[in-house]
Predict the 3D structure of the following.
Amino acid sequence: MTTISEQTLNASGAIPRVTDFQLSRRLAEVAEKLRRQHSDPDRVLAVITESAVANVPSAEFASITTVLQGKFVHSAALSGEPAGHCDKIQEQLGEGPCLESAVEQKTIRIDDMDSDTRWPLFADAASALGVKSMICFQLYVEGINFGALNLHSTRTNAFSEEAESIGSLFAAHAAIAFSTAREEQQIRAALTSRDLIGQAKGMLMERYNLNSQAAFALLAKLSQDTNVKLADLAEQLVIDAAKSTG
């Protein structure tokens, strides 16, 4: 089955219009891919970038850029080396379309990298890499952590209004899937931490003849005195106990 990005150009040099049925079917296929990876946030991000290149008209490369704590730039997922290079350039400059899209929560489109004046240093460097058009979609916001989905093309004026519309739908769809995966990961981590704390508490109860409340209080004090998170301290106690009995 031919993906939207692989459709043959018509006689005028434009990509044929995507029908509502084609778009619905593509989004359904992407949703199924994301569902299969729902428990792994990193894999979800990889599926998002791969599917974006396959299904947003004219997209050749893609990245998901995260801005952590409002300032640390990271490429969370990549599809194509030029996308990674563009993220790296913005990290070094501290500015660019991906960063502004992520933090300002808006869609940004660059139709001609050589004539865009908003980020001249970035535009010059990206153009030298062969990237001539870009479109960036805000993907998620978690406190002071931000993310954007960025699509790149080697052609000028590559992304039409239709491509922007499809990309917006895709980004919204992907953001929900990513948020769900993160929540599942956090729940699993919380359950794991609770189990470890329970094991460590049980060890202290047995070793020092303490009740449950006193054992937890001892764990909490050790955590505070050593400046180590309670779950990490509990994990270390369990590991040390396993080594001593092994």
In short: Confidence is low (pLDDT under 50) at residues 1-12. The first helix runs from residue 20 to 36.
